Amino acid sequence: MRSEGGRPVLVTSPQLTSTTVLLSEAAARRGMGVRVLDGLPDPVAPGPPWHHWYGGPLLADRIALPLGLGLLEPADAWLADLSEEFTARRVVLTTLEEATATLRQPAFVKPPVDKSFPPAVYADGDGLARGVPGHLPPDTAVLVSEVVGFAGEFRLFALDGRIVTGSRYAVHGRLDPGPLPADARRFGERLLAEAGESLPSAVVVDVGLVGDAETGGGRWAVVEANMPWFAHSYGAEPDRVLDVVLRAAGPLPLVTERDRPFLRRRSTGAGAVVPAGGIREEFGSDPARCRGSAPGSDVPCERHPETG
Which of 50, 83, 260, 264 could disulfide-link to 71, CB 3.0 to 4.6 Å? Predict the structure, then answer.
C-alpha cells in the first residue's frame, strides 16, 4: 500500500458502510489519500506520509504493525470504574468464567470493547454460557450490569475533552438517528469535565436517558465508551467525526504520552486472531447480528440499541 504524493492516507475496510463513505469523502475533501484495504499491507517506511484507519478490530490488529498505527481505545474497566452518578446502575468487570458461575438473575452482559459475543440481557449464568461462542477462553473479560431501559440513546464524539459532534441513534430501543439534544451534550460535557482524563483524547461515548416509570421523568447515564475508528456516525457531522477518527487511529510516533496508556495492546501483531478462511469483515443488515459481531468476524454495522 503506497501513499500518493506524500499525502496522509485514510485506510478503510473493503466493505462499505454509510460512515465509511462519509469519512472517505471528508478525507478526500481535505486532500488526504483514501485507500480500501485489499490484503495485508507491506510494512511502510517509518515517518510521513502517515496512515490512519477506519474499520474493525480484527483487521486493525493485523495491519497496525505494518502501517505503524497507534490505535486508541478505552480501558476495559472504564465503565465499571465510573461512579454510579454517571452510570445509574451497578457495573462490574469480571471474566466469562466467573459470570457464568455466579450469575443467578437477569443481567446485561457485554464484552468491554471487542464484539466477541452479542451484548444482551442474559437470564442467568447458564443462559450466558449458551449464548456465547464456545471457543472464547474462560478469562475473557466481560462487563455485567443491572438491567435498565434507555428511553433515548445518543452518540458523542469527543476530542481533547470537548464534544465536537454527536447524534441521537435510538429511541426506546429502536434505531432512530436524529439531532443531538442540548441536555445530552451538557451531560457529556459534565462527564468529560469530571472523568475525561480516564479516557483517550479521542473517544466515542454513548449516553442515554434512563426512563423512570414511576415519575415519568428520566436520568442521564453513560451507556458505554467506544473506539472512534469502529463507530458509526449516524447523524453526526462527518468532518468532525473524521477529526476524532484520525487522532484515535493514526501514526504511532505521534501518539502523545497522555494517550499511550490507551494504546490497543492487541494490535502489536502477537496473537492476533484471524477468522477461518482468512481476514474477513462482514456488514450485516439483520438487527440481531448488529448487536455485535458474529464469531470470527468484524461487524461495524449500525449499533443495535441495547438495554443495559
Answer: 264
